[in-house]
Design brief:
It contains nine helices and seven strands, in the order ααααβαβαββαβααββ. It has 213 residues and is α/β, with parallel strands linked by helices.
Length: 213
Amino acid sequence: MENLEGDFTPEIEPAAAESIFGDQIGKARLYFEALVRDGDLLGLLGPREMPKLWTRHILNSAVVAELVVPGQTVADVGSGAGLPGIPMALVQPEAQFTLIEPMERRSDWLKAIVQDLGLSNVRVQRARAEEVAEVFDIVTARAVSALPNLLRMCVPMTKHGGEVIALKGSKAAEEIQEAKKLQKKLGIASFEIVRVGSEFLTDPTLVVRTKLV
């Protein structure tokens, strides 16, 4: 029998966590504990993700807040477990975040976590991306869809001159090439691959910044 408990032990907090979250580290730890407690039960994160919960999920998301300035509005599409929105909101408390999640049990969980953490700069909206009537300075997403499809969902929610920030992996450049076919139709000004968190993370987060006209 496979020893699930041993194999899927939650990751010990890396030293970088306190550097990234600063005085918000206490809330980050509570969020980590909530994901450990509820992640598998609610289908937010599988047990195999527990040994890399801090580095691959929480810190990987948090450093994207480097790209957000005070006063901006940010939508996290398909928020699920609150990634990347909640870690970003902890790091950048002077921006307003909306977590958009269509599944009832996940949106209910997000609302409870936002309340438990006392995040006054975060609200939760149960909806699909295409149902959202607002527009935001930044729309972000993680592990939702390939870039072309993601842009079709997110661009209508993004202000003119705003940007879609998608957390991506090694195929980012290939996805941009596919997405360029939509550039004129969607009013896209430029694409840029950026690595964020290099000051803190051994493996910085790779994002695609899509700027709109």
